[in-house]
Amino acid sequence: MQQQLQPPRAVGILGGMGPAAGADFVRLFVQACTAHLQQQGLPVHDQAYPEHWLVQLPMPDRSAALRADPQSPTGPAQHLLQGVGRMAALGVRSVALACNTAHAWHGQLQALFPQLHVLHIARQAALHLQAGGAQQAIVLATQGTYDSGLYDAALAECGITALQPDAQGRARLMQGIYDGVKQGDMDLAARCFGEVLAPLLQRHGDVPVIMGCTEIPLAMPQSPLARGAELVDPAWILAQALAGDAYGPVAIQ
Amino acid sequence: MQQQLQPPRAVGILGGMGPAAGADFVRLFVQACTAHLQQQGLPVHDQAYPEHWLVQLPMPDRSAALRADPQSPTGPAQHLLQGVGRMAALGVRSVALACNTAHAWHGQLQALFPQLHVLHIARQAALHLQAGGAQQAIVLATQGTYDSGLYDAALAECGITALQPDAQGRARLMQGIYDGVKQGDMDLAARCFGEVLAPLLQRHGDVPVIMGCTEIPLAMPQSPLARGAELVDPAWILAQALAGDAYGPVAIQ
């Protein structure tokens, strides 16, 4: 409890991927801080929140870069480094990336900035599921996230098997994300997401479902086919982990 | 239209007063950018949004400081200067303060940082009402905002008469803000706000209602007594002005 007596640490959020998801991540972070204060029995007032920064940078498309040249001098890697570098200059101690696919460059960012903790969304989600005793998890994500093996690796480290839709299901997910959520057609998105999820639940039974793209939680809960499923939002878990870093000891993972 | 061909300018948001309102202001700003792109017929994608920063600093209570010592070396003035100073170091060209009461220090901030534009929420709201031809406006705000004469002065500059509740009504507004919204009791808040608004509308007729505290829009629309009233949210007007600065020429006002 001693660290509660010290002022919380400054933390940062790297967004812009897309900007609406970044804005929503700040909301989740503030909510996670409120929950932390309440759980600790501490008074909730404006001054009890940690200093936190958000930067939303115009960021080249992550999935496209992963397929072409992940280290392109004009690609997202350079922009992510720019963003984290400026956060480091601000004295921020921990940074969260408000985009699943951007975590393909996580190792590179963490290696270049050892003075701060770059949280890892998939590892945080995997730790959360491990604590709940999960042995399998369905992963719904963008093609870019599947390509990078982000959740496969993180879940495997925690002894959890990642279950994924087949190629047809992945294409349908991308349709739900790009033609659905990104175009504001939530009905189409919910239909796509539900149609991919239903046969996976039928085949694998009642396993947790990782919504591994920040667009998926915006429509998935509206699908009747998702009713009763254990939907896991990694952005919410990441927001809680960032609040944990701000208020408590920073554990580099 | 020529400025559309240049990349948008970096802008900043100073929040933490409270943090939930600051997070919501980022959402409004992103929404204002989307609206701007659509109005200009420009494609909406992640890379079309301006670089923008949010800092939420633990900030001493503004209303209390205005009553005690507005220039206290440990008061909000110093923290606001710290926040704007770091924004200036980041290369931000315009800054919005996501708190009405904090505008009591606007002149001081703008004078110290002539290299950037510190937007003024009440002046933006007044310009908006002036463009709509208003001659009177009801102002609902905190006691601190009333004390500082923020809206009185800004509206007077635009030839608009500010109408305010009496002392009893002001006390009831504070109850709605502090015992209502800040404690999560939205029913109480809506009741308080509606009871203050109804006699003002009855006395003055159909005039615009400025919700001059970021907590008021969270409950006012739920009051049946506010139905049909022309509710004006200065935070939304400020978010649009900030988007205007990012995409277009900056006009210091």
UniProtKB/TrEMBL annotation, chains A, B:
Belongs to the aspartate/glutamate racemases family. Keywords: Isomerase. InterPro entries: Asp/Glu/hydantoin_racemase, Asp/Glu_race, Asp_race. This is Aspartate/glutamate racemase family protein. One of its GO terms (molecular function) is amino-acid racemase activity. It comes from the Bacteria.
